[in-house]
What does this fold into?
Amino acid sequence: MSPTNPARAATARAANENIATGSLERPIPSGANAPGFGSDVVAETLRALDIPYISLNPGASYRGLHDSIVNFLGNEKPQMLLCLHEEAAVAIAHGYAKVTGKAMAAAVHSNVGLFHASMAMFNAWCDRMPVLVLGATGPVDAAKRRPWIDWIHTAADQGAIVRNFTKWDDQPASPGAARESLLRAWWLTNSAPSGPVYINLDAEVQESRLPEPLAPIDTARFIPPVASAAPPDAIRKAADMLKAAKKPLIYAGRVSRSLDAWNARVALAEALNARVVTDLKIGAAFPMDHPLYAGATRGVAPDAFEADVVLSLDWVDLGGALRGGAAGCKIIQVTLDHTLHNGWSMDYQALPPVDLFLAAHPDAVVPALLEALGASAKPKYQPTYKPVEPKKLDDELTNEHLAYALRQAVGEREMCITHLPLSWDASWWPFRHPLDQIGGDGGGGVGGGPGMSVGAALALKGSGRLPIGICGDGDYMMGGTALWTAAHYRIPLLIVVANNRSFFNDELHQERVARIRNRPVENRWIGQRISDPDIDMAAFARAQGAVGFGPVTRMDELKSAFEQAIRAVEQGQVAVVDVRVKPGYTAAMTAAMTRKTE
Ligand SMILES: Cc1ncc(C[n+]2csc(CCOP(=O)(O)OP(=O)(O)O)c2C)c(N)n1
Ligand SMILES: [Mg+2]
It folds into this structure.
Protein backbone atom coordinates (compact mmCIF):
# COMPACT_ATOMS: atom_id res chain seq x y z
CA MET A 1 0.00 0.00 0.00
CA SER A 2 1.56 3.28 -1.04
CA PRO A 3 0.43 6.86 -1.38
CA THR A 4 -1.26 7.43 -4.71
CA ASN A 5 1.34 9.97 -5.76
CA PRO A 6 4.73 8.66 -4.59
CA ALA A 7 6.72 11.22 -6.60
CA ARG A 8 4.97 14.08 -4.91
CA ALA A 9 5.31 12.44 -1.51
CA ALA A 10 9.06 11.99 -2.05
CA THR A 11 9.48 15.66 -2.95
CA ALA A 12 7.49 16.73 0.07
CA ARG A 13 9.55 14.39 2.22
CA ALA A 14 12.82 15.83 1.03
CA ALA A 15 11.49 19.33 1.67
CA ASN A 16 10.34 18.44 5.16
CA GLU A 17 13.37 16.76 6.60
CA ASN A 18 14.86 18.41 9.64
CA ILE A 19 13.17 21.74 9.08
CA ALA A 20 12.64 23.64 12.30
CA THR A 21 9.27 25.34 12.54
CA GLY A 22 11.04 28.44 13.82
CA SER A 23 13.14 28.76 10.68
CA LEU A 24 10.05 29.26 8.51
CA GLU A 25 8.42 32.51 7.40
CA ARG A 26 11.30 34.81 8.33
CA PRO A 27 10.51 38.49 7.64
CA ILE A 28 13.05 40.94 6.29
CA PRO A 29 14.31 43.11 9.17
CA SER A 30 12.19 46.21 9.78
CA GLY A 31 14.72 48.06 11.90
CA ALA A 32 12.11 48.67 14.61
CA ASN A 33 13.67 48.05 18.01
CA ALA A 34 11.57 50.13 20.39
CA PRO A 35 7.81 49.94 20.72
CA GLY A 36 6.25 52.75 18.69
CA PHE A 37 2.57 51.78 18.66
CA GLY A 38 -0.01 50.34 21.04
CA SER A 39 0.14 46.92 19.39
CA ASP A 40 3.95 46.85 19.81
CA VAL A 41 3.32 46.90 23.57
CA VAL A 42 0.95 43.95 23.21
CA ALA A 43 3.53 42.04 21.13
CA GLU A 44 6.31 42.89 23.57
CA THR A 45 4.20 41.57 26.45
CA LEU A 46 3.54 38.29 24.61
CA ARG A 47 7.30 37.90 24.30
CA ALA A 48 7.90 38.80 27.95
CA LEU A 49 5.49 35.99 28.82
CA ASP A 50 7.62 33.59 26.80
CA ILE A 51 4.77 32.55 24.52
CA PRO A 52 6.28 30.43 21.72
CA TYR A 53 3.47 30.44 19.15
CA ILE A 54 0.33 32.32 18.21
CA SER A 55 -2.03 30.32 15.97
CA LEU A 56 -4.29 32.59 13.98
CA ASN A 57 -6.54 33.39 11.12
CA PRO A 58 -5.97 37.00 10.02
CA GLY A 59 -8.35 39.96 10.04
CA ALA A 60 -8.19 43.73 9.60
CA SER A 61 -9.40 44.27 13.17
CA TYR A 62 -5.99 43.19 14.43
CA ARG A 63 -3.81 44.31 11.54
CA GLY A 64 -1.91 46.50 14.04
CA LEU A 65 -0.98 43.50 16.18
CA HIS A 66 -0.24 41.42 13.09
CA ASP A 67 2.27 44.05 11.95
CA SER A 68 3.84 44.21 15.42
CA ILE A 69 4.40 40.45 15.55
CA VAL A 70 5.93 40.35 12.05
CA ASN A 71 7.83 43.64 11.91
CA PHE A 72 8.51 44.51 15.54
CA LEU A 73 9.14 41.00 16.92
CA GLY A 74 10.45 39.53 13.66
CA ASN A 75 7.83 36.75 13.81
CA GLU A 76 9.46 34.85 16.64
CA LYS A 77 8.50 34.33 20.27
CA PRO A 78 5.70 34.19 19.44
CA GLN A 79 5.82 32.83 15.91
CA MET A 80 2.64 32.96 13.85
CA LEU A 81 1.00 29.70 12.84
CA LEU A 82 -1.47 30.41 10.08
CA CYS A 83 -4.70 28.39 10.27
CA LEU A 84 -7.47 27.98 7.71
CA HIS A 85 -10.24 28.28 10.31
CA GLU A 86 -10.42 29.92 13.73
CA GLU A 87 -11.73 26.71 15.25
CA ALA A 88 -8.44 25.08 14.20
CA ALA A 89 -6.42 27.99 15.65
CA VAL A 90 -7.93 27.48 19.10
CA ALA A 91 -7.97 23.67 18.84
CA ILE A 92 -4.23 23.75 18.09
CA ALA A 93 -3.60 25.86 21.20
CA HIS A 94 -5.84 23.47 23.15
CA GLY A 95 -3.87 20.41 21.98
CA TYR A 96 -0.59 22.16 22.80
CA ALA A 97 -1.84 22.81 26.34
CA LYS A 98 -2.94 19.19 26.75
CA VAL A 99 0.68 18.11 26.33
CA THR A 100 2.56 20.97 28.00
CA GLY A 101 0.04 22.04 30.63
CA LYS A 102 0.69 25.62 29.48
CA ALA A 103 -1.19 28.03 27.28
CA MET A 104 -0.08 29.32 23.92
CA ALA A 105 -1.83 32.19 22.19
CA ALA A 106 -4.42 32.24 19.41
CA ALA A 107 -5.64 35.31 17.55
CA VAL A 108 -9.00 35.68 15.83
CA HIS A 109 -10.72 38.48 13.89
CA SER A 110 -13.34 40.68 15.52
CA ASN A 111 -16.69 39.06 16.24
CA VAL A 112 -16.86 36.82 13.10
CA GLY A 113 -13.54 35.10 13.88
CA LEU A 114 -14.57 34.78 17.51
CA PHE A 115 -17.84 33.15 16.47
CA HIS A 116 -15.84 30.51 14.56
CA ALA A 117 -13.46 30.11 17.50
CA SER A 118 -16.20 29.77 20.08
CA MET A 119 -16.76 26.02 19.58
CA ALA A 120 -13.09 25.30 20.23
CA MET A 121 -13.08 27.66 23.22
CA PHE A 122 -16.01 25.73 24.69
CA ASN A 123 -14.07 22.48 24.18
CA ALA A 124 -11.04 23.94 25.99
CA TRP A 125 -13.28 25.26 28.77
CA CYS A 126 -14.90 21.88 29.44
CA ASP A 127 -11.46 20.25 29.24
CA ARG A 128 -10.08 22.78 31.78
CA MET A 129 -7.22 23.69 29.44
CA PRO A 130 -5.47 27.08 29.27
CA VAL A 131 -5.62 29.12 26.03
CA LEU A 132 -4.94 32.84 25.61
CA VAL A 133 -7.29 34.05 22.88
CA LEU A 134 -6.71 37.51 21.45
CA GLY A 135 -9.36 39.26 19.39
CA ALA A 136 -10.14 42.75 18.27
CA THR A 137 -12.88 45.27 17.67
CA GLY A 138 -13.61 48.76 16.59
CA PRO A 139 -12.49 51.37 16.42
CA VAL A 140 -14.57 51.70 19.56
CA ASP A 141 -14.67 55.45 18.88
CA ALA A 142 -17.50 55.59 16.28
CA ALA A 143 -16.09 58.78 14.76
CA LYS A 144 -13.05 56.81 13.59
CA ARG A 145 -14.87 53.88 11.95
CA ARG A 146 -14.68 53.19 8.23
CA PRO A 147 -18.11 52.91 6.61
CA TRP A 148 -19.97 49.57 6.86
CA ILE A 149 -17.26 47.02 7.69
CA ASP A 150 -15.98 48.66 10.90
CA TRP A 151 -19.60 48.97 12.05
CA ILE A 152 -20.65 45.35 11.47
CA HIS A 153 -17.46 44.16 13.13
CA THR A 154 -17.87 46.24 16.26
CA ALA A 155 -20.08 44.99 19.06
CA ALA A 156 -20.95 46.72 22.32
CA ASP A 157 -19.88 43.73 24.40
CA GLN A 158 -18.00 41.30 22.17
CA GLY A 159 -16.67 39.30 25.11
CA ALA A 160 -20.27 38.29 25.87
CA ILE A 161 -20.01 35.81 22.96
CA VAL A 162 -17.63 33.67 24.99
CA ARG A 163 -17.96 34.99 28.57
CA ASN A 164 -19.94 31.98 29.76
CA PHE A 165 -17.13 29.58 28.93
CA THR A 166 -13.99 31.61 29.59
CA LYS A 167 -12.32 32.28 32.92
CA TRP A 168 -12.04 35.98 32.20
CA ASP A 169 -12.29 38.51 29.40
CA ASP A 170 -11.36 42.15 28.97
CA GLN A 171 -11.35 45.04 26.49
CA PRO A 172 -8.46 47.30 27.56
CA ALA A 173 -8.64 50.96 26.52
CA SER A 174 -4.94 51.91 26.41
CA PRO A 175 -1.56 50.23 25.77
CA GLY A 176 -0.77 50.26 29.50
CA ALA A 177 -4.13 48.67 30.28
CA ALA A 178 -3.55 46.13 27.49
CA ARG A 179 -0.26 45.08 29.07
CA GLU A 180 -1.87 44.63 32.47
CA SER A 181 -4.78 42.80 30.88
CA LEU A 182 -2.43 40.31 29.17
CA LEU A 183 -0.55 39.64 32.41
CA ARG A 184 -3.79 39.00 34.28
CA ALA A 185 -5.12 36.83 31.45
CA TRP A 186 -1.93 34.75 31.35
CA TRP A 187 -1.92 34.33 35.11
CA LEU A 188 -5.57 33.30 35.23
CA THR A 189 -5.56 30.95 32.25
CA ASN A 190 -2.54 29.02 33.54
CA SER A 191 -3.65 28.84 37.20
CA ALA A 192 -5.61 25.76 38.26
CA PRO A 193 -8.33 25.10 37.38
CA SER A 194 -7.36 26.27 33.91
CA GLY A 195 -9.64 27.58 31.22
CA PRO A 196 -9.48 29.86 28.18
CA VAL A 197 -9.40 33.66 28.50
CA TYR A 198 -10.25 36.32 25.93
CA ILE A 199 -8.68 39.76 25.40
CA ASN A 200 -10.39 42.05 22.91
CA LEU A 201 -8.01 44.71 21.52
CA ASP A 202 -9.54 47.94 20.24
CA ALA A 203 -8.21 48.69 16.71
CA GLU A 204 -7.50 52.26 17.72
CA VAL A 205 -5.52 51.23 20.80
CA GLN A 206 -3.46 48.93 18.60
CA GLU A 207 -2.84 51.39 15.81
CA SER A 208 -2.24 54.67 17.64
CA ARG A 209 1.31 55.91 18.21
CA LEU A 210 2.68 55.61 21.71
CA PRO A 211 2.96 59.13 23.11
CA GLU A 212 5.79 57.97 25.38
CA PRO A 213 7.37 54.62 26.31
CA LEU A 214 5.69 52.65 29.10
CA ALA A 215 7.66 52.25 32.31
CA PRO A 216 9.28 48.78 32.30
CA ILE A 217 7.85 46.17 34.67
CA ASP A 218 9.01 42.87 36.15
CA THR A 219 6.62 40.44 34.44
CA ALA A 220 7.20 37.55 36.87
CA ARG A 221 5.85 39.57 39.80
CA PHE A 222 2.46 39.85 38.10
CA ILE A 223 2.04 36.14 37.43
CA PRO A 224 2.89 34.60 40.83
CA PRO A 225 2.53 30.83 41.22
CA VAL A 226 -0.70 29.98 43.04
CA ALA A 227 -0.38 27.36 45.79
CA SER A 228 -2.92 24.59 45.35
CA ALA A 229 -2.09 22.17 48.17
CA ALA A 230 -4.52 20.99 50.87
CA PRO A 231 -4.05 21.98 54.54
CA PRO A 232 -2.20 19.34 56.66
CA ASP A 233 -5.21 18.53 58.87
CA ALA A 234 -7.33 17.67 55.80
CA ILE A 235 -4.51 15.48 54.48
CA ARG A 236 -4.31 13.73 57.86
CA LYS A 237 -8.06 13.03 57.87
CA ALA A 238 -7.97 11.72 54.30
CA ALA A 239 -4.99 9.48 55.11
CA ASP A 240 -6.83 8.08 58.17
CA MET A 241 -9.96 7.34 56.13
CA LEU A 242 -7.95 5.62 53.41
CA LYS A 243 -5.88 3.62 55.90
CA ALA A 244 -9.03 2.30 57.58
CA ALA A 245 -10.61 1.37 54.24
CA LYS A 246 -10.96 -2.30 53.33
CA LYS A 247 -11.62 -1.74 49.65
CA PRO A 248 -10.49 1.75 48.65
CA LEU A 249 -11.16 2.90 45.11
CA ILE A 250 -9.37 5.76 43.34
CA TYR A 251 -11.04 7.70 40.58
CA ALA A 252 -8.00 9.10 38.75
CA GLY A 253 -9.46 12.10 36.97
CA ARG A 254 -8.04 15.46 35.84
CA VAL A 255 -4.36 15.23 36.68
CA SER A 256 -1.28 16.66 34.98
CA ARG A 257 1.05 15.09 32.42
CA SER A 258 3.89 15.08 34.96
CA LEU A 259 5.72 11.75 35.27
CA ASP A 260 6.56 12.47 38.93
CA ALA A 261 2.87 12.98 39.72
CA TRP A 262 2.05 9.78 37.80
CA ASN A 263 4.61 7.79 39.81
CA ALA A 264 3.24 9.22 43.05
CA ARG A 265 -0.31 8.08 42.09
CA VAL A 266 0.95 4.58 41.33
CA ALA A 267 2.82 4.50 44.65
CA LEU A 268 -0.32 5.66 46.51
CA ALA A 269 -2.51 2.98 44.91
CA GLU A 270 0.13 0.36 45.78
CA ALA A 271 0.45 1.60 49.38
CA LEU A 272 -3.34 1.44 49.84
CA ASN A 273 -3.89 -1.62 47.67
CA ALA A 274 -6.58 0.52 46.03
CA ARG A 275 -8.23 -0.26 42.69
CA VAL A 276 -7.98 2.59 40.19
CA VAL A 277 -10.34 3.65 37.42
CA THR A 278 -9.54 6.18 34.70
CA ASP A 279 -11.46 8.04 32.02
CA LEU A 280 -10.56 8.10 28.29
CA LYS A 281 -12.14 11.57 27.99
CA ILE A 282 -9.18 13.01 29.87
CA GLY A 283 -5.46 12.29 29.76
CA ALA A 284 -3.93 9.01 30.95
CA ALA A 285 -3.76 8.93 34.75
CA PHE A 286 -2.69 5.40 35.68
CA PRO A 287 -0.90 2.50 33.95
CA MET A 288 -3.59 0.37 32.33
CA ASP A 289 -1.57 -2.82 32.66
CA HIS A 290 -1.08 -2.40 36.42
CA PRO A 291 -2.62 -5.21 38.51
CA LEU A 292 -4.64 -2.60 40.44
CA TYR A 293 -6.08 -1.03 37.30
CA ALA A 294 -9.84 -1.48 37.20
CA GLY A 295 -10.81 -0.08 33.79
CA ALA A 296 -12.06 3.03 32.07
CA THR A 297 -15.70 2.10 31.99
CA ARG A 298 -18.08 5.00 31.54
CA GLY A 299 -20.06 5.83 34.69
CA VAL A 300 -18.33 3.14 36.72
CA ALA A 301 -19.90 3.03 40.23
CA PRO A 302 -18.20 2.22 43.57
CA ASP A 303 -20.64 -0.62 44.32
CA ALA A 304 -19.27 -2.57 41.35
CA PHE A 305 -16.00 -2.77 43.32
CA GLU A 306 -17.62 -3.12 46.76
CA ALA A 307 -15.65 0.02 47.59
CA ASP A 308 -15.96 1.46 51.10
CA VAL A 309 -13.87 4.62 50.54
CA VAL A 310 -13.56 6.54 47.27
CA LEU A 311 -10.71 8.96 46.61
CA SER A 312 -11.74 11.17 43.70
CA LEU A 313 -8.80 12.95 42.09
CA ASP A 314 -10.88 15.58 40.32
CA TRP A 315 -13.05 13.00 38.56
CA VAL A 316 -15.04 14.65 35.78
CA ASP A 317 -18.51 13.50 36.86
CA LEU A 318 -18.20 12.19 40.40
CA GLY A 319 -21.90 12.80 41.16
CA GLY A 320 -22.91 10.81 38.08
CA ALA A 321 -20.61 7.91 38.97
CA LEU A 322 -21.89 7.76 42.55
CA ARG A 323 -25.51 7.70 41.37
CA GLY A 324 -24.69 4.32 39.83
CA GLY A 325 -24.43 2.92 43.40
CA ALA A 326 -22.26 3.94 46.34
CA ALA A 327 -24.10 2.40 49.30
CA GLY A 328 -22.29 2.97 52.59
CA CYS A 329 -19.28 4.36 50.78
CA LYS A 330 -17.33 7.34 52.17
CA ILE A 331 -16.29 9.91 49.62
CA ILE A 332 -13.11 12.04 49.56
CA GLN A 333 -13.23 14.63 46.82
CA VAL A 334 -10.04 16.45 45.70
CA THR A 335 -10.74 19.30 43.31
CA LEU A 336 -10.55 23.02 42.67
CA ASP A 337 -13.19 22.84 39.98
CA HIS A 338 -15.94 24.52 42.03
CA THR A 339 -14.05 27.82 41.73
CA LEU A 340 -14.91 27.83 38.01
CA HIS A 341 -18.59 26.93 38.06
CA ASN A 342 -21.05 29.47 36.69
CA GLY A 343 -24.76 29.78 36.09
CA TRP A 344 -24.66 29.23 32.34
CA SER A 345 -22.74 26.02 31.66
CA MET A 346 -23.86 22.84 33.41
CA ASP A 347 -20.52 21.20 32.67
CA TYR A 348 -20.04 21.10 36.45
CA GLN A 349 -22.10 17.87 36.35
CA ALA A 350 -24.18 16.32 39.17
CA LEU A 351 -23.55 17.50 42.74
CA PRO A 352 -21.77 14.64 44.54
CA PRO A 353 -22.30 13.75 48.21
CA VAL A 354 -18.93 14.23 49.92
CA ASP A 355 -17.59 13.26 53.37
CA LEU A 356 -14.23 15.02 53.09
CA PHE A 357 -13.59 17.83 50.62
CA LEU A 358 -10.03 18.87 49.77
CA ALA A 359 -9.97 22.13 47.81
CA ALA A 360 -6.63 21.35 46.20
CA HIS A 361 -4.95 20.06 43.05
CA PRO A 362 -4.62 16.25 42.93
CA ASP A 363 -0.93 16.52 41.98
CA ALA A 364 -0.25 18.33 45.26
CA VAL A 365 -2.45 16.05 47.39
CA VAL A 366 -1.10 12.64 46.35
CA PRO A 367 2.52 13.16 47.54
CA ALA A 368 1.18 14.69 50.77
CA LEU A 369 -0.98 11.60 51.33
CA LEU A 370 2.01 9.32 50.73
CA GLU A 371 3.94 11.25 53.34
CA ALA A 372 1.08 11.15 55.85
CA LEU A 373 0.79 7.39 55.32
CA GLY A 374 4.53 6.97 55.74
CA ALA A 375 4.57 5.17 52.39
CA SER A 376 7.31 5.01 49.81
CA ALA A 377 6.96 7.49 46.96
CA LYS A 378 8.63 5.05 44.59
CA PRO A 379 6.22 2.77 42.73
CA LYS A 380 6.91 -0.95 42.47
CA TYR A 381 5.38 -0.95 38.98
CA GLN A 382 7.81 -0.62 36.09
CA PRO A 383 6.36 0.07 32.64
CA THR A 384 7.44 -2.68 30.28
CA TYR A 385 6.59 -3.10 26.65
CA LYS A 386 4.73 -6.30 25.91
CA PRO A 387 4.35 -7.36 22.28
CA VAL A 388 0.80 -7.40 21.00
CA GLU A 389 -0.71 -10.83 21.48
CA PRO A 390 -1.84 -12.62 18.32
CA LYS A 391 -5.55 -12.37 17.81
CA LYS A 392 -8.03 -13.83 15.34
CA LEU A 393 -10.32 -11.13 13.97
CA ASP A 394 -13.03 -11.28 11.26
CA ASP A 395 -12.24 -10.04 7.80
CA GLU A 396 -14.39 -6.89 7.77
CA LEU A 397 -12.43 -4.12 9.43
CA THR A 398 -13.61 -2.62 12.71
CA ASN A 399 -12.03 -0.15 15.09
CA GLU A 400 -10.66 -3.12 17.00
CA HIS A 401 -8.77 -4.25 13.87
CA LEU A 402 -7.52 -0.70 13.49
CA ALA A 403 -6.27 -0.62 17.09
CA TYR A 404 -4.66 -4.03 16.79
CA ALA A 405 -2.78 -3.33 13.54
CA LEU A 406 -1.75 0.15 14.70
CA ARG A 407 -0.28 -1.22 17.93
CA GLN A 408 1.64 -3.79 15.94
CA ALA A 409 3.01 -1.13 13.60
CA VAL A 410 3.91 1.24 16.44
CA GLY A 411 5.71 -1.57 18.29
CA GLU A 412 8.00 -0.34 21.04
CA ARG A 413 8.06 3.29 19.90
CA GLU A 414 7.08 5.96 22.38
CA MET A 415 3.81 7.42 21.15
CA CYS A 416 1.06 9.82 22.15
CA ILE A 417 -2.55 9.13 21.23
CA THR A 418 -3.73 12.68 20.65
CA HIS A 419 -7.35 11.78 19.92
CA LEU A 420 -9.63 8.75 20.04
CA PRO A 421 -12.92 8.07 18.29
CA LEU A 422 -16.06 7.70 20.42
CA SER A 423 -16.23 3.97 19.85
CA TRP A 424 -12.78 3.21 21.30
CA ASP A 425 -12.56 0.49 23.92
CA ALA A 426 -10.00 0.96 26.70
CA SER A 427 -8.97 -2.69 26.57
CA TRP A 428 -7.47 -2.27 23.08
CA TRP A 429 -4.36 -0.36 24.14
CA PRO A 430 -2.84 -0.23 27.63
CA PHE A 431 -1.43 3.26 28.18
CA ARG A 432 1.61 3.30 30.47
CA HIS A 433 2.85 6.89 30.56
CA PRO A 434 1.10 10.23 31.17
CA LEU A 435 1.81 11.24 27.57
CA ASP A 436 0.59 7.98 26.04
CA GLN A 437 -2.90 9.51 25.74
CA ILE A 438 -4.06 13.07 26.32
CA GLY A 439 -7.85 12.71 26.35
CA GLY A 440 -10.70 13.95 24.21
CA ASP A 441 -12.18 17.21 23.03
CA GLY A 442 -13.56 18.21 26.42
CA GLY A 443 -16.82 19.76 25.32
CA GLY A 444 -18.09 17.00 23.02
CA GLY A 445 -17.67 19.32 20.05
CA VAL A 446 -17.01 17.13 17.02
CA GLY A 447 -14.35 18.60 14.70
CA GLY A 448 -11.68 19.25 17.32
CA GLY A 449 -9.73 16.02 16.76
CA PRO A 450 -7.47 17.12 13.88
CA GLY A 451 -6.66 20.57 15.37
CA MET A 452 -5.93 19.24 18.84
CA SER A 453 -3.74 16.57 17.30
CA VAL A 454 -1.76 19.22 15.39
CA GLY A 455 -1.29 21.26 18.60
CA ALA A 456 -0.18 18.19 20.53
CA ALA A 457 2.20 17.24 17.71
CA LEU A 458 3.63 20.77 17.78
CA ALA A 459 4.35 20.39 21.50
CA LEU A 460 5.88 16.94 20.91
CA LYS A 461 8.00 17.92 17.89
CA GLY A 462 11.58 16.77 18.44
CA SER A 463 10.68 14.76 21.57
CA GLY A 464 10.91 11.41 19.78
CA ARG A 465 7.32 10.60 20.82
CA LEU A 466 5.13 9.75 17.83
CA PRO A 467 1.84 11.71 17.79
CA ILE A 468 -1.16 9.70 16.55
CA GLY A 469 -4.64 11.16 16.26
CA ILE A 470 -7.42 8.67 15.57
CA CYS A 471 -10.46 10.56 14.31
CA GLY A 472 -13.91 9.58 13.16
CA ASP A 473 -14.65 10.52 9.54
CA GLY A 474 -17.14 13.14 10.73
CA ASP A 475 -14.56 14.66 13.05
CA TYR A 476 -11.86 14.57 10.36
CA MET A 477 -14.00 16.28 7.74
CA MET A 478 -15.15 19.00 10.15
CA GLY A 479 -11.65 19.91 11.32
CA GLY A 480 -9.33 18.43 8.69
CA THR A 481 -7.95 21.67 7.28
CA ALA A 482 -5.85 21.93 10.45
CA LEU A 483 -3.59 19.41 8.69
CA TRP A 484 -2.50 22.10 6.26
CA THR A 485 -1.06 24.06 9.21
CA ALA A 486 0.85 20.95 10.31
CA ALA A 487 2.19 20.35 6.79
CA HIS A 488 3.07 24.02 6.29
CA TYR A 489 4.97 24.34 9.57
CA ARG A 490 6.59 20.89 9.29
CA ILE A 491 4.88 19.39 12.31
CA PRO A 492 5.09 15.59 11.95
CA LEU A 493 1.85 13.81 12.80
CA LEU A 494 -0.05 10.62 12.00
CA ILE A 495 -3.81 10.86 11.61
CA VAL A 496 -5.83 7.68 11.29
CA VAL A 497 -9.39 8.08 10.06
CA ALA A 498 -11.73 5.53 11.59
CA ASN A 499 -13.93 5.88 8.56
CA ASN A 500 -17.33 4.28 9.01
CA ARG A 501 -18.78 6.68 6.41
CA SER A 502 -21.30 7.94 8.92
CA PHE A 503 -22.02 10.24 11.82
CA PHE A 504 -22.54 6.85 13.38
CA ASN A 505 -23.06 7.94 16.97
CA ASP A 506 -26.30 9.52 15.86
CA GLU A 507 -27.42 6.45 13.98
CA LEU A 508 -27.55 4.75 17.35
CA HIS A 509 -29.62 7.60 18.73
CA GLN A 510 -32.10 7.23 15.84
CA GLU A 511 -32.19 3.50 16.46
CA ARG A 512 -33.03 4.11 20.08
CA VAL A 513 -35.86 6.52 19.27
CA ALA A 514 -37.22 4.07 16.69
CA ARG A 515 -37.21 1.27 19.28
CA ILE A 516 -39.01 3.38 21.86
CA ARG A 517 -41.61 4.38 19.27
CA ASN A 518 -41.89 0.95 17.62
CA ARG A 519 -40.77 2.35 14.27
CA PRO A 520 -38.37 0.71 11.76
CA VAL A 521 -34.79 0.75 13.07
CA GLU A 522 -33.66 0.04 9.50
CA ASN A 523 -34.10 3.74 8.73
CA ARG A 524 -31.54 4.87 11.26
CA TRP A 525 -28.93 5.60 8.56
CA ILE A 526 -30.93 8.28 6.72
CA GLY A 527 -29.51 11.75 7.30
CA GLN A 528 -26.43 10.14 8.90
CA ARG A 529 -24.39 8.25 6.27
CA ILE A 530 -21.48 10.06 4.61
CA SER A 531 -21.42 7.98 1.42
CA ASP A 532 -22.56 8.11 -2.21
CA PRO A 533 -20.14 9.56 -2.94
CA ASP A 534 -17.68 8.15 -0.42
CA ILE A 535 -15.24 10.90 0.53
CA ASP A 536 -11.66 10.29 -0.56
CA MET A 537 -10.00 10.97 2.78
CA ALA A 538 -6.48 10.32 1.46
CA ALA A 539 -7.00 12.81 -1.37
CA PHE A 540 -8.30 15.35 1.15
CA ALA A 541 -5.09 14.77 3.14
CA ARG A 542 -2.95 15.28 0.05
CA ALA A 543 -4.83 18.48 -0.70
CA GLN A 544 -3.57 19.78 2.68
CA GLY A 545 0.04 18.79 1.86
CA ALA A 546 -0.02 15.55 3.85
CA VAL A 547 0.77 12.05 2.56
CA GLY A 548 -2.46 10.11 2.13
CA PHE A 549 -2.83 6.32 2.37
CA GLY A 550 -5.92 4.29 1.64
CA PRO A 551 -8.74 3.65 1.64
CA VAL A 552 -7.61 0.48 3.40
CA THR A 553 -10.29 -2.18 3.44
CA ARG A 554 -8.37 -5.37 4.29
CA MET A 555 -6.53 -6.50 7.38
CA ASP A 556 -3.52 -7.74 5.41
CA GLU A 557 -3.00 -4.21 4.05
CA LEU A 558 -3.55 -2.38 7.30
CA LYS A 559 -0.32 -3.02 9.17
CA SER A 560 1.83 -2.19 6.17
CA ALA A 561 -0.14 1.01 5.51
CA PHE A 562 0.49 2.04 9.12
CA GLU A 563 4.18 1.13 8.86
CA GLN A 564 4.63 3.24 5.75
CA ALA A 565 2.71 6.12 7.29
CA ILE A 566 4.82 5.97 10.46
CA ARG A 567 7.97 6.02 8.34
CA ALA A 568 6.69 9.12 6.57
CA VAL A 569 5.99 10.80 9.93
CA GLU A 570 9.45 9.88 11.16
CA GLN A 571 10.81 11.65 8.10
CA GLY A 572 8.94 14.80 9.06
CA GLN A 573 5.67 14.34 7.19
CA VAL A 574 2.03 14.60 8.11
CA ALA A 575 0.49 11.26 7.13
CA VAL A 576 -3.15 10.20 7.01
CA VAL A 577 -4.42 6.63 6.75
CA ASP A 578 -8.06 6.21 5.70
CA VAL A 579 -9.32 2.96 7.26
CA ARG A 580 -12.73 1.86 6.08
CA VAL A 581 -14.28 0.36 9.19
CA LYS A 582 -17.67 -1.30 9.51
CA PRO A 583 -20.28 1.09 10.93
CA GLY A 584 -20.73 -0.09 14.49
CA TYR A 585 -19.57 0.44 18.03
CA THR A 586 -18.46 -2.10 20.61
CA ALA A 587 -21.24 -4.33 21.87
CA ALA A 588 -21.17 -2.67 25.32
CA MET A 589 -21.45 0.83 23.91
CA THR A 590 -24.20 -0.10 21.46
CA ALA A 591 -26.17 -1.78 24.24
CA ALA A 592 -25.80 1.28 26.48
CA MET A 593 -26.86 3.69 23.72
CA THR A 594 -29.81 1.78 22.28
CA ARG A 595 -31.53 0.64 25.49
CA LYS A 596 -35.29 0.94 24.93
CA THR A 597 -35.94 2.73 28.20
CA GLU A 598 -33.75 4.65 30.59
C1 LIG B 1 -20.07 20.23 16.69
C2 LIG B 1 -20.90 18.99 16.87
N1 LIG B 1 -21.87 18.72 15.96
C3 LIG B 1 -22.63 17.61 16.11
C4 LIG B 1 -22.46 16.78 17.19
C5 LIG B 1 -23.35 15.56 17.38
N2 LIG B 1 -22.53 14.33 17.19
C6 LIG B 1 -22.03 13.64 18.23
S1 LIG B 1 -21.13 12.33 17.74
C7 LIG B 1 -21.42 12.67 16.13
C8 LIG B 1 -20.89 11.77 15.06
C9 LIG B 1 -19.44 11.98 14.81
O1 LIG B 1 -19.08 11.27 13.66
P1 LIG B 1 -17.67 10.60 13.52
O2 LIG B 1 -16.62 11.55 13.94
O3 LIG B 1 -17.58 10.04 12.17
O4 LIG B 1 -17.69 9.45 14.62
P2 LIG B 1 -18.58 8.09 14.64
O5 LIG B 1 -19.75 8.36 15.54
O6 LIG B 1 -19.00 7.79 13.26
O7 LIG B 1 -17.68 7.05 15.22
C10 LIG B 1 -22.19 13.80 15.98
C11 LIG B 1 -22.61 14.39 14.68
C12 LIG B 1 -21.46 17.14 18.12
N3 LIG B 1 -21.23 16.41 19.22
N4 LIG B 1 -20.67 18.22 17.92
MG1 LIG C 1 -18.06 8.21 11.46
Observations:
- Residues 472-474, 500, 502-504 surround magnesium ion (ligand 2) (CB under 6 Å).
- The radius of gyration is 25 Å.
- The first helix runs from residue 6 to 16.
